[in-house]
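question for whoever is on the cluster today: can someone run the full assembly for these? two chains, 433 residues total. i dont have access anymore since they changed the login thing
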Amino acid sequence: MDNKETIYTKRMKVADLLAKDGSLLSILQRLEIKLGFGEATVAEACTRYGISTELFLMICNIYSHKDYMPDVNTLSEKDIKSITAYLHASHKYYTTVSFPSIHNRIHNLVKEIDEVSRRLIDKFYDDYDTEVTNHFRYEEEVVFPYIESLIENGRENGKKYNIAQFEHNHSNINEKLNDLKNIIIKYLNEEYSSPLRFELLGEIYNVENDLSKHSLIENKLLIPLVEKLENSNEQGE
Amino acid sequence: MNKENKYKIILIEPSEIVAAGIASIIAKQPEFSLVQTLSNTDYYNAANSDIDIIIINPAVIDYNERLDIRASLSSTTAALVALTHSSYEEKVLRQYDECIGIYDNAARIIQKLKSAVEENAQNPKSDLNELSARERDILTAVAKGLTNKEIADEFNISIYTVISHRRNISQKLGINSIPGLTVYAIMNKLIDISDF
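^ ran it for u. tokens below:
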């Protein structure tokens, strides 16, 4: 996609954004923007739902344009809360919709395959599931509360921790999913060629794509904003 | 070398001036024959399997594919020679058998073309996508849970070499995690599931 021409702006219609990139649908769902918005522009829709237009555009642009770098200086503390709320909603979506759906499809696929491959794929996926669930839990139980206390009380309560540590622990959760995808595409015996195999792969591609955008939102928006807040608090002391 | 005893060359270079210059240098050499000149890879024809050398300006390859140049050229097994107008990262140039700069003189260019053909003959790229015997051994060790240090000791190679083998293995298979490599190793009967 050619980015300069198609960077989204607040005067564009929400429907036009979706026409350019259908994967933006998941953003609307997580921000609880209802469909049926007619010809509403981005600015109108954001005002109606009480979402920062700047932030909404940044999230959409990160999704659609891989070289896009948001200018976090135009965002405020209030936006940090919106970002964590967004990330929380997307965790919930992955754990209640995406992963159960993949799990279900794997379960149905492995029913058809040989004992050895079945055990391998089952175990591989279960381990991945545990790893990614732990990753989300860490963000929910450690990172988000830390950010909240940083906003409420300043640096004081969070002295022991800083967001750079999160960045450090931020392992690539997509690696194993990509491995699983390649194993199912290339190495699972070709005799297992039911439509299920294609459907499972389609689902993995979607989740993989979405998870990579999720990480970009953390890396390009959340972490720089929190670092800025940490620095301003330190200078204030 | 083909039956007319000439090395067949394809040149992929967007600048007409530079392409004409290279063509005139090659035309004076009895052992080389320039069979096709292209301005980009769009019209590169994978059916040209008897080509010995591809001279290509790295700038015509999409940035994301520069690290996998052979894949962009339909996994060709020809010798690859970079024709550079500006400088490139070492990891980009490492994929070429030789590198010609536009300030090289005719004698130097011809010398580099010859050395590229020799280099390519010594390291045939035909099994580029399959694991080598050594890589299979290393993969088996990784799947069994050995650390890089243990693998280095067992095969009597440096840790750096182990890491480089592992990088190549992952690149070929598209599998990066150790559990993923283990699944591959068992499915391909490199190790038994009881080791798992």
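summary bc i know u wont read the tokens: DSSP finds eight helices and five strands in chain B. The mean pLDDT of chain B is 85.
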